[in-house]
Amino acid sequence: MKKTSYQALQQAYVFQDLTDTALQDLFQLQRQEIYQKGQAVLQEGTLTDGIYFIVDGEIELSRQGKEKPVPLFSLFGGDILGEVEFFFSDRRTVSARAVSETIVLFWEKETFLNFIDLYPAAKQRLKYSAESRRLAFKLGFGWLAEGEVIHTLARRHPLHLVQGLILPVVLLFASILLAIHSAQNQLPPLLWIAIFMGITGAGWIIWSILDFFNDFFILTNQRVIWLEKVIGLYERRKETPLQWVLSTGVNATFFGRLLGFGDIHIRTYTGQMVLTHVPDPPFFIDQLEELWRLLKQLQDEVDRDAMLTTIAQKLGSTADEDQEYNLTAGEAGIKTDPEIGLDQWSFRTRFESEGVISYRKHWAVLLQGLFLPVILTMITVTLVILRISGSLTIFNDERFLLYTLAMIFVFLFWTGYRYVDWANEIYQITPTQIIDIHKKPLGQETRKVAPLENILGTEVNQKGILGLLLNFGDVTTRVGTSEFIFEGVLNPNAIQQDIVRAQNAFLQRRNKTEQHQRQMEVVEWLSAYHEETQIGQSGSEEPQSEKENDTSSSDHSGPGAA
User: Fold this and answer.
1) How far, CA to CA in Å, does 523 sit from each of 1, 394, 517, 539?
2) Whole-angstrom Cα distance, residue 530 to residue 522?
3) C-alpha to C-alpha distance for 438 and 487, rounded to whole angstroms
4) Is residue 471 part of a domain?
5) Number of domains forming the structure of the chain
6) Stretch 274-299: mean pLDDT
């Protein structure tokens, strides 16, 4: 059942602080507009004339690239459009067009500004959302999944940075005092120590500032993410899907309550995800609960529409839906060849076959394993060449060539063994599982398997300068209370997205199957009731027909008898 425009406004996250009277006043100030599919809603570079609230439909945002517009993401019912320009720009920073028939409420800029100034709490909530959207536009995270939209994006509270700067500032100040003292007393050794302390303190300060601006708490319409970067050391992205969130809570100290920050505890099936020093935690939690509610509401609407469609089809014909059910049930039980991905000798680190994505470890891991045998092979071959050419005279024994040739064979076998071992240590994502396979050359094969339905969250770790430069690291998947790790893989962010997409596809297939089973049970009951009703109606009509026939016969015999 579609909501009215006012009902949609009532449920909007940014207007939760408004009373019913204030919300009615706001509703009276709007102008409802309807945009058809493909119609432009606003154009980049034009003057900011107002703000939009999407009641129903979908609007795609884009920015002009060098040659053509570049799509950004889409907004849906319940989202605000134009809040970034409302607070931070006199001109539109993006273009927007309707992807489907879309209903919006529009307020002129001056009218909305006069209203929102009367309600500071609602204005602060809207500005919090606008700052998140503006930062998301600026950073443009390329690892977001298709259809994923950032609703909240925040750094830690500035107090966290202040706390991190205390030690380096003390170190820098102490170096200055030590330098003054050494200069006054002509103590060169102390001066060098002071210079070293000063450089260390200054570098530490710069590193702390850069590190502060590289950590983010992100809330999208699909998941909660903690993106943490330590420059030159590692990059980590810890996340949990919205559908696995059980409850939330805030832990704030006295200074936290005073300055507006706290630690957010998000409880999931695997434990807790703790986001520390989050600014304005009530806004973050309210947005999370709103997105969770919208996700559940969307699923309920899809289930309801599918139920009505199935009932209508069943009462008319049973062939189509039975065929759909069998197809869906078949998809839910997809089987794959256990040998897929093994014994492939290319240097590719990612390849697909029959719906299975296989990954190998990064080339750096292979080169590390090949380094020693290759070096020994090259040294041995060099000795053989020098011996044959006569340049090497210290080994005159005729058995030298035989020994070295045997050593070359051993080293080449060692090199081949290391390559085969690398090639057959693979990680896989199938339509139903994630798999860790290690097939030892001339040895046993070990295989670890985890169902996609049991995955409760993923995490990416890229450690060290080499890992960041060469873009490889670990992808850790939480399965129940244990962990499933793809170690040393190329582009771990992309692999994380492959896991998320595979799990979403599996859950959709499973939900579709379960939904169809529930629908068919209800439809069978309705069909049985419909048949019983028809039988009852036909049974009640028979005595009336017989009575009419009897009456007709008696009328016939009366005149004849007379």
Assistant:
1) 20, 93, 10, 24
2) 12
3) 12
4) yes
5) 3
6) 86
The pLDDT value recorded for residue 432 is 86
Top-confidence residue, 74 or 317: 74
The proportion of the chain whose per-residue pLDDT surpasses 70, expressed as a percent, equals 85
Alpha-carbon distance of 367 to 537, in angstroms, equals: 82
pLDDT at res. 268: 75
Q: How far apart are CA 332 and CA 110, in angstroms?
A: 54
Residues 32 and 88 in one domain: yes
What distances in angstroms separate CA 423 from CA 143, 314, 344, 447, one per listed residue? 27, 52, 7, 15
- Determine the 3-state secondary structure of 392 from DSSP: coil
Cα 204 to Cα 172: distance, rounded to the nearest angstrom: 9
Indicate which CATH number applies to the domain containing 393: 2.30.29.30
- Domain range for 39 is 1-140
State how far the Cα of 455 lies from the Cα of 434, in Å rounded to an integer.
Answer: 9
Residues 6+ positions from 550 with CB-CB distance below 8 Å: none
Residue position matching structure tokens 């927007």: 96
Q: Which of 115, 114, 10 lies closest to 53 in space, CA to CA?
A: 10
497 and 362 both lie in a single domain: yes
Amino acid at 201: G
Residue 115: in which H helix or E strand, if any? helix 109-116
Pairwise CA distance, residues 392 & 50, whole Å = 86
Tell me whether residue 553 is in a domain: no
**What pLDDT digit, counting tens, does each position of 117-133 carry?**
999 989 999 999 999 98
Q: How far is CA 323 from the centre of its chain?
A: 33
Alpha carbons 291 and 240: distance in angstroms, whole number:
14
Regarding whether 185 and 78 lie in a shared domain, the answer is no
Residue range 65-87: mean pLDDT, rounded: 87
Residues 371 and 491 in one domain: yes
The Cα 263–Cα 252 span in angstroms is 6
Lowest mean pLDDT among 104-113, 161-170, 527-536: 527-536
- 360 plus 491 within the same structural domain: yes
Q: How far apart are CA 155 and CA 211, in angstroms?
A: 11
- The candidate with the shortest Cα–Cα distance to 149, out of 216, 223, 83, 63, is 223
DSSP element (H, E) containing 532: helix 492-561
CA nearest neighbour of 493 among 142, 251, 147, 204:
142
Report the pLDDT value the prediction gives residue 97, as an integer from 0 to 100.
Answer: 94
Residue 95, SS3 per DSSP: strand
- Structure tokens, 332: 């839910």
Per the listing, tokens 């309705």 go with 526
Token code pair at residue 1: 């059942």
Give φ, ψ of 270 to 5 degrees.
-100, 0
| % of residues, the chain, pLDDT over 90 | 20
Residue 248 has a CB neighbour count (10 Å cut-off) of: 18
CA dist., res. 510 & res. 315, Å (int) = 25
Same domain, yes or no: 369 and 456: yes
Domain-located, residue 453: yes
Enclosing H/E stretch for 475 = strand 472-479
Q: What is the pTM of this model?
A: 0.65
